[in-house]
Structure prediction request, 374 residues.
Amino acid sequence: MNDNLVPPAAIGMQITDVDTPALLLNLDVFENNRIKLKKQLTETKTNFRPHSKSHKCPSIAKLQLEDGAIGICCQKVSEAEIMSKAGIKNILISNQIVGPTKIQRLVKLSKSASILVCVDNKENINQINNYAKMFDTRIGVLVELDVGTNRCGVVGEFEVLKLVKLISSHSNLDFIGIQAYQGKAQHVREYNARKSLVENASQAVKRALDLLRENDFSCKVVSGGGTGTFNFEVESEVFNEVQPGSYVFMDGDYGRNLDAAGETIDLFGQSLFLLTTVMSLPSDSRAVVDVGLKSVAVDSGLPDVCLKGVRYVSASDEHGVLEIPRLIDLKLGDKIKLIPGHCDPTVNLHDWIVGYRDDKVELVWDIAARGAFF
Prediction:
């Protein structure tokens, strides 16, 4: 956070007085989302390790631990350092950490917190062990298995076995389990297509587990699953840990996923919004607002406008252009809520989350890990 900046809101303020652009959090919906996930997972034997890359906020991570999470996921060492400093001590870095500088930070962090990390490369495994030995610590590792995302991870059960054998031969590494996240499946709209991708992923994991068992290796953790698919990972009975993150907020893209009946999924509600101000009215059919590319991510589409008939049609650095029907009477200075297309990178553009209830500001949370991408 930039200490020279002033928060856009103060506790007790009306939403209409919040400065913009601002990230708003409807606390009633936020709390209900957490209750719903907790209820879903309490009825299973599946552990819950939410991904903090969605919110980057220690205050939210602590609430998730209160909800029963066994720990959190981070995607970067810098995120893990910030969360650990805030008192969160069970962290899976669900990513590969490469290079002497980052690995040294990783092993130093493991001296004061329970740190797990993903691996998919022999050289990386050797380096992590060497630095763990140098700093007299142990690191728990998960072998990442590519289950269709075509990103990181080894392909096939025999490659998993090779890495597990190597890990087990090292003095300062502990093989903990398998990371098997099907990222592409999260935003597949059609229910059966989404389910099929996770079923394929589960079969790939099962083959790896069977091979490890045949070679006398135990696998304590199989982790994966996101907001769009976690119920399928749970149903597979192959995964014993899931990593949903966006469920606390939701976004426009997740809002387009469909359930088994072909209806929009409504398990989790939209709690995260962008508050924006009308800054120009060039014509009867066009308005300009102060949320642009520097305050909203558009990789998953332009934001939706919470005003019937109004469309956000283009974005530049500091401006967003709205197309307005003639029946809508917007005035200069009007405040409008937007729904971001992708919550994670949108949150990373802001320093604070403004929590409100009944249109009154109840809290202002620091997004402490904002910009922590190294």
Observations:
- The two ends are 15 Å apart (CA to CA).
- The chain is about 30% helix and 25% strand.
- The first strand starts at residue 22 and ends at 26.
